[in-house]
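Regression check, hydroxy diiron-OXO moiety case 162:
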Amino acid sequence: MLKKEMEQALNEQMNKEFTSAYIYAAMAADFAAKDYNGFSRWMIAQAREEMGHGQKIYHFILERGGRPLYDSIEKPQEQWDSVLAVFEHALKHERFITKSIDELVNLSRKLDDKATEIFLQWFVSEQVEEESNVESILVKFEQAGLDNRGLYLLDKELGARE
Ligand code: OFO
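Current build output:
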């Protein structure tokens, strides 16, 4: 059985994951409107992944006898000044999520909730991957350049994401 404090914190994290999905969906829409269809596809895949993260927490809360609660989702930014600005925002956001997961782990330890601590290990590893994925895209921007040709090549490459 989840302690109330942990249940509430997990619900907040579930909301953050769905908020992430919303932010990435908004980024996908901005890219699509600007004809960057590859970047848009990448962001749509990312948004789907975030929905999956939220669902994972939803099921865990239920399994532990808690009640998943859907909260309101903040309106995401609609437009970004450049392709680079979008991915920089994505990295900043993932670092914020990593911090949030780390705080959840600390709380599970404080409450001596081993099941939640073990459950959160998946998210700890996932955050390493999430940050690293965006960091390597930013490196690719440096390598390929931000001129039309560089953006064209990367749009194609990122569009190949399943
Ligand atoms: Fe759910 O990892 Fe990104 O936000």
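Comparison notes: The chain has five helices and no strands. The CA atoms of residues 5 and 139 lie 40 Å apart. No diff flagged against the previous build.
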